[in-house]
Amino acid sequence: MEQRAEAVIVVGVDGSPHSVAALRWAARLAPAYGAHITAVGAWENPPEYVGFVHFKDDNFDELARKRVERAVQEAFGDDVPAGLSTVVEFGHPSKVLMRHSEDAAVLVVGRRGHGGFKGLLMGSVSSACVAHAPCPVLVLPEPAVGVGKSGAAGQAADGEQAG
């Protein structure tokens, strides 16, 4: 008899309020899937860094790692779900998420991240995930409506009833 690996819920995390909400939804879904959560962050060299060295902060991997850690802290405080792991890799966020979601039960992303086109319905990463992910994708709406820190569905982030 073949033994199956434990199910995984992959969450795209860039530190935005949308990704914090995605972490909270993943924690709510994990028991139903019998899954643990993997929070995945990605980083790339900014275009202005290609070809020359800038003397300001250039430790983008560490900055991305701290951004993921802060998002986990904001989402859960001291009550981090058991088995939650974090991964931060170099690469385009959608490609990194595709790689990590190959065997995932579900991929959870916010509708928008820190991208510059605020008027778009969905950001480029969430759109790419919907189009190309090898697993089901949950794209969350605005973080103010969804799951509050307590994990109760239908509550605004401040605890008021959404409606």
How would you portray this structure in words?
The protein is α/β, with parallel strands linked by helices and 163 residues long. 31% of the residues lie in helices and 23% in strands. The strands form two sheets. Strands 3-2-1-4-5 form a five-stranded parallel β-sheet, with helices on both faces. Helix 2 (60-76) links the parallel strand 2 and strand 3 (85-90). It starts with 6 loop residues before the first strand and ends in a 7-residue tail after the last strand. Residues 145-163 have low confidence and may be disordered.
Widest sheet, order of strands:
3-2-1-4-5
Q: Count of DSSP helices?
A: 4
Helical coverage, percent range:
25-40%
Low-confidence stretches: 145-163
Cα-atom Rg, whole angstroms?
Answer: 16 Å
Query: Whole-number average pLDDT?
Result: 80
Largest sheet: 5 strands, parallel
Listing every helix as H and every strand as E from the N terminus to the C terminus, the arrangement reads EHEHEHEHEEE
Strand content: 15-25%
Distance between the termini: 48 Å
For this structure, the quaternary state is single chain
* Broad structural category: alpha/beta
**What best-fitting shape do the alpha-carbon axes yield?**
globular
List how many beta strands DSSP finds: 7
